[in-house]
Amino acid sequence: MTTVDDLRRCYTTALTMTRKDGRTVDNHRADVFDGDTAYVRTTGGTGKVKRIRRDGEVLAAPATTKGNPAGDAMPMRAHMANEAETKAAVGLLRKKYPLIHGVVFRLAERFQRTINVVIVLEPTPAVPIAAS
Asked: What global pTM score does this model have?
């Protein structure tokens, strides 16, 4: 079974989300961890943002740089970051990925007039099994 430490060791995380019609969609994103909480950054109007706003239940699996899953998926709860979380996460992402998050995302915001958002991923607490 995949743990947060397994996700932390990989360069990217493969996220599996569900569309309205029940089909699953796979995505991979570079992430950064602060404790057990993961942060990923993406463009604001994408389908993954809409799916997370509608239903924050995702499956996260360690992935290769090409996005191929490199382990089992674990359930996580995703939500859009607030202002304080965004500021902290962007700092961590720029430190870990200086070219992508320090240069590319800034240029995209400026020249394409896009708004980038941060998605927060937190492990879903394990449900205890009642003793019979």
From this structure: 0.82
